[in-house]
Amino acid sequence: MSLLIKNGRIITSSDDYIADIYIENEKIKQIGMGLSVKADQTIDATGKLIFPGGIDPHVHLDMPFMGTFSSDNYETGTGAALFGGTTMVIDFILQTQGKSLYDALKEWKGRSDGNAVGDYSFHMAVTDFNENTKAEIKDLIEKEGITSFKTFMAYKGALMIDDRQMVGLMNEVKKQGGMVTTHATNGDMIDYLVAKHRGEGKLSPLYHYLSQPEITEAEASGRFSDMAFQTGVTAYIVHMTCEGAHNHVRDAARRNQKVYAETCIQYLVLDASLYDKGFESAKWVMSPPLREKKDQASLWAGINQGSVQVVATDHCPFKWEQKKLGENDFSKIPNGHPAIEHRMELLFSEGVHKGKISLNKFVEVSSTNTAKIFGMYPRKGCISPGSDADLVIFDPNKQHTLSAKTHHMNCDYSGYEGWKVTGKCETVILRGEVAIQNNKLLVKKGYGQFIKRNKTTGII
Ligand code: URP
Ligand code: ZN
Ligand code: ZN
């Protein structure tokens, strides 16, 4: 199968030029002006932008969480991602406390194998670090290609590890050449505030927000950076939301330590005023919660200054019936919101179209940096001969409206209902196959591949 894309404006993290792209056997073979090759299929991309396929390194598909499962499985989740120009995701395996990491890997493979339409990889969330877990790290990195180890500094009693376990894990992961990532919020402080609010009968979604003030995230981000500094491990903070946490990441850079920081699209475009809508606010109950305008400003600045390298989603959808588990108690509302489909288009519309970021920066934070940080570059995250032909042909002028009526995520509401967006992923190509065209999904369940990742290089 070969494919020729003619006259597109190719945007990478560093370049911007018009050329043809010739694809054969899943890979980009040639890039040049006026290529005279014969192909099975030709697409005219005149007037369109061509981006590397988006990579979302923070999603939760078919995940058991808070007494239920996230509502997108590998088929619907990676399918919705493709509609939105994301050709690869990294999902989280959660170790069950008392069981092994390989037990968890087996469980997650049982749900993912043969079911994805888009490419995917796993982070391993270590929720119980001990001598047995420690012994599994090397094989996970070297045999399975799972090179990043997630920790939770919150969700006390279920997922949280203490600092002693954190330092032990960091030392082992450093030794084996991997990376430690974290959900950086202070679980004990949050636990106290949740109990306090419940004790006072303050049970609406607003109190989810008020139980996780900025200081809970800033404190944990600083503590995590300090432990990473002491152990020398490559470190990454997931879903960073606020100025206080960002200041710690900047402090780390000042002492020549690199702590990578990921934010998510919702923290750039939504704010805490959404917690003033009674129980409807459950749509935006996520951890950490949405923050203030000043935090959005800090995150956009960080993207431009290079202290925030990645924009993800933390896609963790629950249907309305599931959100109603917490109708009478905010602490029982499953945490998370649907976003996997909208990351690229919202980032383009709110970022590039509104003049906050350049086209090159858009590619950097939606694809290239993630491929580099998580050991997939240059197979993924770029448009170069030899790379996987994962491409988005994008109409920068097309206007459309986001809605649960038209989105492809398995969720019966949208956190972005009625949002007007400029720019649309028109054609999406995954490893040389046209996956999305004319608003239709053209690849089948099972086309998505598990991508083994390399050791972290720390090249950005
Ligand atoms: O609210 C969220 N973020 N749900 C998913 C789990 C996590 O903390 O990432
Ligand atoms: Zn989290
Ligand atoms: Zn998450």
What is the rounded Rg?
Answer: 21 Å
Distance between the termini: 35 Å
How big a fraction of the residues is strand?
15-25%
- Name the structural class: alpha/beta
Ligands, deduplicated: N-(aminocarbonyl)-beta-alanine, zinc ion
Task: Estimate the helix proportion, in percent.
Answer: 25-40%
Number of helices: 13
CATH class of the domain at 54-373: Alpha Beta
The main pleated sheet reads as: 9 strands, mixed
Topology diagram in text:
Elements: E1 2-11, E2 16-24, E3 27-32, E4 41-44, E5 49-52, E6 54-59, E7 64-65, E8 68-69, H1 74-83, E9 86-94, H2 101-112, E10 119-125, H3 131-142, E11 148-152, H4 163-176, E12 179-183, H5 187-199, H6 206-210, H7 214-231, E13 234-237, H8 243-254, E14 259-264, H9 265-269, H10 293-305, E15 310-312, H11 320-323, H12 343-353, H13 359-373, E16 391-401, E17 420-430, E18 433-437, E19 440-441
Parallel strand pairs: 1-4, 1-5, 6-9, 9-10, 10-11, 11-12, 12-13, 13-14, 14-15
Antiparallel strand pairs: 1-2, 2-3, 5-16, 7-8, 16-17, 17-18, 18-19
Helix pairs in contact: 3-4, 7-8
N-(aminocarbonyl)-beta-alanine (URP) binds next to loops.
Describe the fold and architecture.
It is a single chain. Helix content is 31%, strand content 24%. The protein has 460 residues and is α/β, with parallel strands linked by helices. Strands 1, 2, 3, 4, 5, 16, 17, 18 and 19 form a nine-stranded mixed β-sheet that branches. Strands 6-9-10-11-12-13-14-15 form an eight-stranded parallel β-sheet. Strands 7-8 form a two-stranded antiparallel ribbon. β13, α8 and β14 (259-264) form a beta-alpha-beta unit. α3 packs parallel to α4 and α7 packs parallel to α8. It starts with a strand and ends in a 19-residue tail after the last strand. The model has no long low-confidence stretch (mean pLDDT 98). One zinc ion binds next to loops.
